[in-house]
Amino acid sequence: MSAASAETAGLPVEPVTAKRSYRGGGLLTQLTRSPSGFAGLILVVVIVGVSLIAPIFVEAPSADVNLIWTPPSSAHLLGTNGSGEDILKLVLRGGTTVIFVGFGAAALTTAIAIVMGSLAAYFRGRFDAIALQITDIVMTIPTIVLLAVLGAFFQLNSPVALAALLGAFTWPVLMRSIRAQVLSLKEREFVEAARLLDLGTMRVVFVEIVPNMASYILINFIIAITNAIYALVGLYLLGLAPMAGSNWAIMINDAWTSGAMFNPNAMSYIFSPVAAIILLQLGLIMLSRSLEEILNPRLRDR
To answer: Is 249 a domain residue?
Structure first.
């Protein structure tokens, strides 16, 4: 693509050794050679897979006043909560919303950052100044306070609405990073070749420049997922999101408000959703660190 454009325009082409290196061996193969990265990948795949499949095969636990705060047993491996519901079933079924909001918010954050950052760096001038001004304004808005205000006026009981809100206010930092990357890339020979061939602004930006940041975008996408999940859990823990349905964050809030930390039989109700979130976040972080080492030649050669 870029090489062909550069050759057609008669410009020198830099060898892209980093891309060839991991493409030749395969990204998955490279990950299997990294114990931490492969362990992170397995953790993420297992937790996401179980969270997506469990609501189909695991029935929703029913409340039973005769089983309130029962300790773990063969009938209820993690015990029951203050409503007599099986905690294990709640944990298995409770990951879908958290994961959906995390991935959805990260996708929106990344998309806004790519479009605004790339176009601002490519056009510069007034467009760049306006984009940076909008970025500064969004960065100064306290997200938690804004979400609390919005929660008072709008029903945030939809995962789509939560993902949209979290994604709409967490893109400025990534936008500035992508803008800096594009400012460097736009001076390269293959971009100059694309301009000489008159390929059009949108193609030059999103076909010639953005794909060269794929590894950087992928790593920041994973980081955005972890940030969105932490923000979502914080919203529920502070009571800023409606307690409709059942997910890990609602379990933590319910355990906190019902005083489960003072009940020895209720420890699993607190620690089970916390452990699920920690394991998911740990898997994402291990995966992102290994991907960074694989995709970044400067780190890989150390």
So the answer is: yes
